[in-house]
């Protein structure tokens, strides 16, 4: 307990104090240098801490993972690309790739559509702020808590028993003769149900970002379109959507990265069983269940390579938007 108290005090007091001290020392040090030196070093002085943290906590671990992926399960012998070949030929990994691809397609699509619908509807009512705050609540819930909530929603009991799961209770009550469904067992329905839970937890984020984009639009454009006889759908399709395209691009990219990194929802709701594994859960199982460090590292590198094109495309879209301004 005393050790944790010391760590907590260090995090609360020492780290901010170090940042303030660095800022003071850096500013005074720059004042002592010639103007040419200040111009050359000023950017590096302020970017330096962030670059150092990036290198220590992101770059070096990533390089270490790449090195481990070239070694055997106990990291004692060099095996080259054997771990990658085994991963690509493994049926379990192929199932994980297939499910990750489904997440990559359907989570951004569904989350953006639902978020855009909520943003447009809440923008048109007087109590829009309260409605947005309510709809944003799932985003504030931890992924584990959300997964537990949806496990109860999908709970299954045999036919004839009292259905404790909300979805099966509604199904058997509203549809005469309907049998309860094992939502988290039957593939590929189970993966779709987990994605639905993910949409519930992320649509609020999409709504907030898209709502901010809607607020930034010139209202006179929509008013002019309505004066010219355009209907609501025409104004939305021809004016709102094109102006909102950069914001939608940002949200889609964020959701795509979220989909590729999906782990906690799948792990808590299904543990990756019944063909619901994604790449991250497959990596977790290989590392902590099979204790195969090299194979798990290879899967981690493949996941990183899958995310990299999305990040590059995102940076390119940001540069194109900046060049248009």
Describe the protein:
This protein is mainly alpha-helical and 325 residues long. 77% of the residues lie in helices and 0% in strands. It has 2 domains: 2-69; 82-324, MetI-like fold, CATH 1.10.3720. It has 14 helices and no strands. The protein starts with a helix and ends with a helix.
Question: Which key features would you list for this structure?
Answer:
MetI-like fold; mainly alpha; globular; 325 residues; 14 helices
Major sheet attributes: none
**Annotated CATH architecture of the largest domain:** Orthogonal Bundle
Structure annotation, total helices: 14
Q: What is the H/E string?
A: HHHHHHHHHHHHHH
CATH class membership of the largest domain? Mainly Alpha
CATH homologous superfamily assignment of the largest domain: MetI-like
Beta content: under 5%
Mean pLDDT: 87
Number of domains as seen in the coordinates? 2
- What is the strand tally? 0
Task: Estimate the helix proportion, in percent.
Answer: over 70%
Structural class of the helices, strands and pairings? mainly alpha
Briefly summarize what is shown.
With 325 residues, the chain is mostly helical.
List the topology elements:
Layout: H1 2-31, H2 35-69, H3 82-89, H4 91-122, H5 128-135, H6 137-140, H7 143-153, H8 166-174, H9 189-215, H10 219-227, H11 232-260, H12 264-269, H13 279-288, H14 293-324
Helix pairs in contact: 1-2, 2-14, 3-14, 4-5, 4-9, 4-11, 4-13, 9-11, 10-11, 11-14, 13-14
């Amino acid at each position: 307990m005393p050790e944790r108290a010391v760590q907590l005090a260090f995090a609360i007091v020492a780290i901010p104090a170090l940042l303030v001290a660095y800022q003071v020392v850096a500013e005074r040090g720059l004042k002592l240098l010639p103007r040419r030196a200040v111009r050359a070093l000023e950017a590096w002085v302020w970017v330096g801490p962030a670059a150092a943290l990036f290198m220590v906590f992101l770059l070096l671990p990533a390089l270490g993972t790449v090195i481990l992926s070239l070694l055997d399960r106990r990291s004692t012998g060099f095996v080259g690309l054997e771990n990658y070949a085994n991963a690509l030929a493994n049926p379990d990994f192929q199932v994980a790739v297939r499910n990750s691809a489904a997440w990559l397609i359907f989570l951004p699509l569904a989350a953006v559509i639902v978020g855009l619908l909520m943003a447009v509807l809440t923008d048109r009512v007087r109590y829009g702020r309260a409605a947005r705050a309510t709809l944003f609540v799932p985003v504030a819930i931890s992924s584990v808590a959300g997964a537990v909530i949806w496990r109860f929603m999908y709970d299954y009991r045999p036919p004839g028993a009292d259905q404790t799961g909300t979805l099966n209770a509604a199904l058997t009550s509203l549809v005469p003769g309907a049998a309860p469904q094992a939502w988290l067992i039957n593939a590929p329905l189970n993966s779709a149900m987990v994605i639905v839970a993910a949409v519930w937890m992320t649509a609020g984020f999409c709504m907030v970002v898209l709502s901010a984009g809607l607020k930034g639009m010139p209202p006179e454009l929509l008013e002019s379109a309505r004066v010219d006889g355009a209907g609501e759908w025409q104004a939305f399709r021809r004016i709102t959507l094109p102006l909102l395209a950069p914001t939608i691009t940002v949200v889609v990219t964020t959701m795509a990265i979220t989909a590729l990194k999906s782990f906690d929802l799948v792990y808590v709701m299904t543990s990756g069983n019944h063909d619901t594994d994604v790449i991250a859960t497959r990596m977790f199982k290989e590392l902590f269940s099979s204790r195969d460090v090299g194979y798990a590292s290879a899967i981690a590198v493949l996941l990183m390579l899958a995310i990299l094109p999305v990040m590059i495309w995102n940076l390119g879209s940001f540069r194109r938007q900046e060049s248009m301004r």
